[in-house]
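User: Before I run my own analysis I want an independent prediction to cross-check against. Here's the chain; please return only the structure tokens and, at the end, one sentence I can use as a sanity check.
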Amino acid sequence: MFAPLTKPDLGSASPGARLYCRPTCFVDRPHELDDACLRIADSMVWFAAWHISLRDKGVVKSAIVTVPEYADWVAAMPDPLVEMAGKQRTGVLRPRGALHLGERVVRLNEPQLMGILNVTPDSFSDGGKTIDGAAAIDAGFAMASAGAAIVDVGGESTRPGAPLVWEGDEIERVQATVAGLAKGGVAVSIDTRKAAVMEAALAAGATIVNDISALRYDERAMEVVVKADCPVVLMHAPSAKSDPHEGGGYDHVLFDVYDLLAERVAACVTAGVDPAKIIVDPGLGFGKGVSDNLALINGLALFHTLGCPILFGASRKRMIGALDNEAPADQRLGGTVALHYQAATQGAQLLRVHDIPENRQALRVWRGLRDAALTG
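Assistant: Structure tokens:
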């Protein structure tokens, strides 16, 4: 249930109420608004209002509050909500440090591309294309040359219905590719949820762990990441079991996904992961229908309140086909570019894609528009 939010609603909120303060009303020319807008981290994205939502006893109430009015609304809140609001505002404004990936430095003040390199026989759109070691390494170098800041290597398909791969087989699939790319100076992330695969890939030269289970699937995964002191991507999936798509029922998908990721970020920090090295991903398509995915995309800016870079991945996903006459995976480039451009307008720092040149071109156009608005 949804309803308009008022200041008295905040003052009478129950002890278990949750607050969500999402940046909204994005502006192209912040210099014309003086102090009436704020910047998301150190990005090129500014916003003029907060979309404040209160979730209390199953009811969601929301209001759009301008940046100058925000302090008055916070003043109407009880102390627990004031604390939430303060942490979320700080999270949005905190600069995101660069990722130091071996000898490579990836700066996050504008969107960067992460190339998808699946060395699997059964991934949903490119299974079997780069299963050969030499072909995979060549494909990774091609991605880097075309503009990928990071190449994400995966050895297990996590599409719906995909079989679980034994960790030994997964290591065999990814190790040589990771080593070959890393030796050639490419920044490599390892897309896995298994601790043994993480260890093997990190030893081979990977510098980021990208875990679809947010370090929940393997009880040793957290220990591996802490010991390696490497950046980690925490992705939302409804299940930490073998099938990550199980249990995808939501009361409110945006807030439910946010709450789980907030919990995982806190768990990682408590375990000893450097907060500056945590990246979050809302996990489009994992236990989520088309309407769920659209809600997450429209509300993507909420995840900035976690204070972490956002990784966004919609490349060739089924939702594009669902919106365009069931277009097959190899005919979803237009939708992919559109969705990642939308993510860039909301300040997403990392975009995980298959098609690097086309998405690189879209980002250059996006950057040109931003520059013209700021200087024109």
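Sanity check: The longest strand covers residues 46-56.
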